[in-house]
Amino acid sequence: MHEPGTPPVTRRALLALAPGLLAASWAFAQQRPYTLIVPTPAGGPIDRVARLVALELSPALGQPVVVDNRIGAAGKIGVQAALRAPRDGHTLIAVSPSITSVNPAIDKAAGYDPLTDFDTLGIAATNAGVFAVRADLPVASMAELVRHAKAHPGQLTYGSFGVGTSLHLQSEELLQALGIEARHIPYKGEAQAMNALVAGEVDMMAYVTAPVVPFVQNGRLRALAATSSERWALLPQVPSYAETGLPALGAYRYRSWVGFVLPSGTPAAERQRVLDAWRTAMASLALRRALEAQGFEAAAGDGAEMQRTVAAELERNRRLIASGRVKLD
């Protein structure tokens, strides 16, 4: 029914309007901001990288990229929220080893499979760090730490970003390699864990990144080793694992990373649009310098390489879980 005096809208008229409506709908979709979900608290490593990348993605996409911190459940809440969003290319996720290769290894109800539910763009940045201890712990090297731990069994504690995070698993893997024990004290994120270490609430952390530098420099923390086979540029005076003289650390290394994904099922055109913008952003010299200033190394790896990394880390973590070494309660 139509208003008196108003000509009825015919089927032909509707068909004539359709192309314009579709074009308007497409134009509106292009004007919508993009959302970059960060499943971890603000200020942490993933968040710092995500915000730097978002600054370069926005002009490449021609639209704002809004960072949305969705925290909780070791990153699962943020990932699940992203996977519930429309698969239109406007929702991206910043991820890390905790999210891609730890959660699915330890929790059958994680709510996602990183090898099938993510369309990987690539790893944006990697970062080394140091093994650090509280300043008044009477050890000055990794060898001394091992001797101290064996002389005081069950007394040492270590901090992590939470139960079931990548740092929790990596710490247990490292302790196992060194043949020592320490009690796990979980915190909610890197900042809380590091503050606890500075305050002396825990004895050590197996991996701490750029925010640790001023505390090492002013003597409030002691860095025993860089967590790779090379020294870390931000603390070049600290020996690498390979330089500690401990056979267990000769080939051992741990480097975290931050990558970016789309939910799988994103239409090909929108996926290509985001991928092109991603490549443009990662080619930015300004982004590379900004990442380096934060203690990261720009990676700009492609999606296939990231997929292989996730698969390998998943297998590594599943073997560790199967060993019974990691306590998740």
Q: Helix and strand string, N-terminal first?
A: HEHEHEHEEHEHEHEHEEHHEH
* Uncertain regions spanning at least 5 consecutive residues: 1-7, 23-29
Question: Considering the protein shown, what is the CATH homologous superfamily of the largest domain?
Answer: Bordetella uptake gene, domain 1
What do the pLDDT scores average to? 89
Overall body shape: globular
Q: Domain count, please report it.
A: 2
Number of strands: 11
From the helix content, strand content and strand pairing, which structural class follows? alpha/beta
Strand order of the largest sheet: 2-1-3-10-4-11
Please state roughly what percent of the residues sit in beta strands, choosing from under 5%, 5-15%, 15-25%, 25-35%, 35-45% or over 45%.
15-25%
Question: What's the total helix number?
Answer: 11
Compute the separation of the termini in Å.
Answer: 65 Å
Helix content: 40-55%
Task: Explain what you see.
Belongs to the UPF0065 (bug) family. This protein has two domains: 34-127 and 256-322, D-Maltodextrin-Binding Protein, domain 2 (3-Layer(aba) Sandwich), CATH 3.40.190.150; 131-249, 3-Layer(aba) Sandwich (D-Maltodextrin-Binding Protein, domain 2). 42% of the residues lie in helices and 18% in strands. The protein has eleven helices and eleven strands. The chain has helices spanning 11-31, 45-61, 76-84, 97-106, 142-151, 166-178, 190-198, 213-217, 268-282, 285-293, 303-322, and strands spanning 34-38, 65-69, 91-95, 118-127, 130-134, 157-160, 183-186, 204-208, 221-226, 256-263, 297-298. The longest helix is centred in the first third of the chain and has 21 residues, at 11-31. It is globular.
